[in-house]
Design brief:
Layout (H helix, E strand, L loop, with lengths): L4 H24 L1 E7 L10 H13 L3 E7 L4 H12 L6 E3 L3 H9 L7 H4 L6 H6 L1 E2 L2 E2 L1 E14 H6 L8 H13 L3 E4 L9 H12 L1 H8 L8 H16 L11 H9 L3 E7 L3 H4 L9 E4 L13 E12 L7 H11 L2 H4 L6 E2 L9 H12 L2 E3 L2 H4 L5 H9 L8 H15 L5
Parallel strand pairs: 1-2, 1-3, 7-8, 10-12
Antiparallel strand pairs: 3-10, 4-5, 6-8, 6-9, 6-10, 6-11
Helix pairs in contact: 9-10, 9-11
Length: 420
């Protein structure tokens, strides 16, 4: 029993104040919705995402972070639908930048954060990837480039040197075939893995302008460099460079071929540095090297194919919670969060390469004089799926690759416009 009415009323007042303070705190929490690709789980490939989500939540208790992992292609598909409908948008979505992001910006779906993000430390290439028509819409903590993963144990066994020219690469492939080893792992069943090598071959025949002109509609997609690159790709498939049934091999199968020493080279992105450098995944010694040049061709060894590996862009919804969005972007580019990554090339200064493979890939990236973005991310969304469908057919021995490229050009003309 309370000794006085005053004491009872005082206690009620204290309780009411505490409840009120709790209610205000809960109500004042800002909600931040982020769409990403990977789960923040214990998968080594997701180490950065896990550190980012957990670290941001710990450092920002006043923000209610709702992170939705959508996978691949779930992230791209859901983003396309939301952007087209202009509703149910998140505040931030994981993006590879380029013209796909630019198309969303042109449609008024993104939020300009130039003033807030322009001075965040990072590589010029990464910032440029998240810039469209002079405006910065996000950040890119990690970059990816394509190169040649080489099984150095196999090369040493057969006294092979890492090729620096296309001719040398063919000789190496012939030697490997003669010894029962598949020269290249590719994963053509999943379509998109075919692209990296084709991009390099087109570049080596025609230089950076071969694709740039086709994209700008100053040239066709069945131009001479495009056709020659496709013909060489098909010739290599006929020789068996990609194994007896390349279209039956998925990207995961390609990784296993490299991990078990059944394939000696893999032309793919540097995102594989963590896995190929992990002793629990493979006991093979694997290195990362630049793609060879073509003697007499226009492309240079310093012409590199690559793009943002992990990036984040802000939608128009960011205007509601601008402070929370900026805080997330800055933490995504922090040394603390980025140091958790086990393999990717980091664009943030002060983050050490986590393994030998990443060091090798970073060295190739550092020497790059020109970087061409992944075509299936840099072209308009309406023509990217037909692109990968077309490339996959290069590995069919009886396909007419020139006709395939002409058919693709017709699709581009329909959705983008004719070459001028």
């Amino acid at each position: 029993m309370f000794k006085s009415k005053k004491a009872f009323l005082a206690l009620l007042l204290v309780v009411a104040m505490l409840v009120g303070m709790f209610s205000v705190t809960a109500a004042s929490k800002v909600k931040l919705v982020v769409w990403g690709r990977d789960l923040p789980d214990d998968d080594p490939a997701h180490a950065y995402i896990k550190a980012l989500i957990e670290g941001f939540q710990a450092k920002n208790p006043d923000i209610d972070l709702e992170y939705l992992a959508l996978g691949d292609p779930g992230l791209m598909d859901k983003t396309k639908v939301a952007m087209a409908n202009n509703r149910d948008l998140p505040h931030i979505f994981q993006s590879w930048g380029g013209s796909v992001m630019g198309g969303y910006a042109d449609a008024g779906r993104l939020y300009d954060l130039t003033a807030e993000l322009k001075d965040i430390p990072g590589s010029a290439a990464a910032q440029q990837a998240m810039t469209w028509k002079g405006k910065i819409y996000g950040v890119a903590p990690f970059f990816a480039i394509a190169g040649v993963f080489v099984n150095e144990d196999i090369f040493e066994k057969y006294n092979l040197k890492v090729p620096t020219t296309i001719a040398e690469m063919e000789k190496v492939a012939d030697t490997l075939l003669a010894n029962g080893i598949q020269p290249f792992a590719v994963g053509a069943r999943d379509k998109w893995p075919v692209l990296a090598m084709y991009m390099y071959l087109v570049n080596r025949f025609g230089g950076m302008e071969a694709f740039d002109n086709a994209q700008a509609r100053k040239a066709r997609f069945d131009s001479e460099p495009m056709v020659k690159a496709a013909q060489l790709y098909q010739e290599w498939a006929k020789r068996g460079y990609f194994g007896p049934t390349p279209l039956g091999e998925a990207y995961g199968d390609a990784q296993q071929l490299m991990a078990t020493g059944k394939a000696a080279m893999h032309v793919t992105g540097s995102w594989m540095c963590a896995q190929y450098g992990d002793p629990s995944f493979t006991d093979q010694k694997i290195g990362f090297y630049p793609f060879p040049v073509l003697e007499g061709g226009k492309g240079k060894a310093t012409d590199v194919m690559g793009m943002t590996d992990i990036g984040f862009a802000a939608t128009r919804m960011a205007a509601e919670n601008k402070d929370a969005v900026v805080r997330f972007m800055k933490y995504a580019m922090s040394v603390e969060a980025c140091s958790a990554e086990l393999g990717r090339i980091c664009s943030v200064p002060g983050v050490k390469a986590p393994n030998r493979l990443t060091e090798m890939a970073s060295a190739v990236f550092a020497k790059a004089e020109a970087i061409q973005f992944w075509w299936d991310q840099d072209l308009a969304p309406s023509i990217t799926s037909p692109l990968n469908d077309t490339l996959q057919q290069f590995l069919l021995p009886n396909s007419n690759v020139k006709q395939l490229l002409t058919n693709y050009e017709m699709i581009v003309e329909e959705f983008v416009g004719p070459a001028r």
